[in-house]
Amino acid sequence: MTFTNNRIIRYFLEAKEEMKKVIWPSRKETTSHTLLVIGISLGVAAFLGAIDYALNIGLEKIIK
After folding, report:
1. Predicted TM-score (pTM) of this structure
2. Per the count of CB atoms within 10 A, which of 1, 2, 23, 37 is most buried?
């Protein structure tokens, strides 16, 4: 049981040390990247929606 506990404790201690090495983005960078992802997602959604609409209209014309 001690072996398992030591491995778990060592894992968390090493994880804590690695977290100290991380260079975290600033608030401005985080906001900028978040807005970029939202913008691209909306753009892709609009593009796919337009394609879906056009294909739907085309299919209706073929069927009728």
Report:
1. 0.65
2. 37
Dist CA 28 CA 38 (whole Å) = 15
Residue 24 DSSP one-character state: P
Check: CB of residue 46 under 8 Å from CB of residue 54. no
Q: Report how far Cα 40 is from the mean position of its chain's Cα atoms.
A: 12
Q: Which residues of 49-60 are buried (b: 16+ CB within 10 A; e: fewer)?
A: eeeeeeeeeeee
Every domain of the chain and the residues it spans: 24-64
Q: What is the pLDDT of residues 17-64, one digit of tens each?
A: 999 999 999 999 999 999 999 999 999 999 999 999 999 999 999 987
- What pLDDT is recorded for position 6? 87
CA distance linking residue 43 with residue 47, whole number of Å: 6
